Amino acid sequence: MKSLLKQLTETFGPSGYEENVRKLVRAEVKPLADEIKVDALGNLIARKRPSKVTKDTKRIMIAAHMDEIGLMVSHIDENGFARFSNIGGVFAKYVLGGRVRFLNGVTGVIGFDRFDKMNEIPPLDKIYIDVGATSKRDCPVKVGDVAAFDRSFVEMGNRFVAKSMDDRVGVLVAIETLRALKSTPHDVYFVFTTQEEVGTRGAGTSAFGIDPDLGIAVDVTAAADTPNAFKMEMKLGKGPCVKIQDGGMIADPRVVKWMIRAAEKNKIPYQREVLLFGSTDARAMQLSRAGVPAGCLSIPTRYVHSPSEMVEYADVQNSVKLLAALLRAKVDLGE
Ligand code: CO
Ligand code: ZN
What we know:
Elements: H1 2-9, H2 19-29, E1 35-38, E2 44-48, E3 59-65, E4 70-76, E5 81-87, H3 92-95, E6 99-102, E7 107-112, E8 127-130, E9 146-149, E10 154-156, E11 159-162, H4 165-180, E12 187-193, H5 201-210, E13 214-222, E14 241-245, H6 253-265, E15 271-274, H7 281-286, E16 294-301, E17 309-312, H8 313-328
Parallel strand pairs: 3-12, 3-13, 13-16, 14-15
Antiparallel strand pairs: 1-2, 2-12, 4-5, 4-9, 5-8, 6-7, 6-9, 7-8, 10-11, 11-17, 14-16
Helix pairs in contact: 1-4, 4-8
The chain binds cobalt (II) ion and zinc ion (ZN).
């Protein structure tokens, strides 16, 4: 599981350019799924059919996004410095002095001029990517080329740090759940979605296509256990979080209860999640067609959207346990 997480996080796949991640995921799920397809937006859909169709069989969509935040070259000046626009939530305060890697293999440094006040954080348009070029002509990247943070995976005791833990750790949880799920009474669609970071776009179209009875996203949430964090409950090491609300959705209360009951019944630690900002693919599923009961299983993560996102191994393992427990049993929404 660890080595797959390392591989997943060290692969480059900004929104819209998920191909390398999709290749890796496809190789993993191929022997596990009954059916695999890629739709028009690039979502990879791995279906696990029910062992037996009964009146309790539900069509369930699990969504984990393959894309990561990134940068796109918008202009190159005469001296070969590249300006860029953001792909998703990229912030100058996290990227200054860092490195990025373009899909064509070129490395760039996030450069900056002098600061008038050393403590000020410049806006994105005051910084640039330095790819080592000396002129526009010898610049190895062009307008429209995309890059992502360049940082290797590290293990720090029971914690893992990497770029794009958002949401490759969710992708890992979905893959490992499919692996652990020998059989299910449900028709389960594991969807490895595209373009989440720019507005849950892949999940929107794939949910429309699948038309599920129920949707669960697997994504990261902000851990609030650092010195001056927002007043929220989520902590590393205390178990997967059951989302109740975030900036974009109110999770279906029936789904929340069902997830909590499963955690308690199977003695899996869990946390109640109210996230004060952000959202996930669960929002897109919930608002698909005439509406879908949806919830989200979140992995508590520190430093989300920085090049060093941190998770705890036990939370990852318990997320797999919880998701597998949910998919193995009859869905009881208390109706
Ligand atoms: Co994100
Ligand atoms: Zn995410």
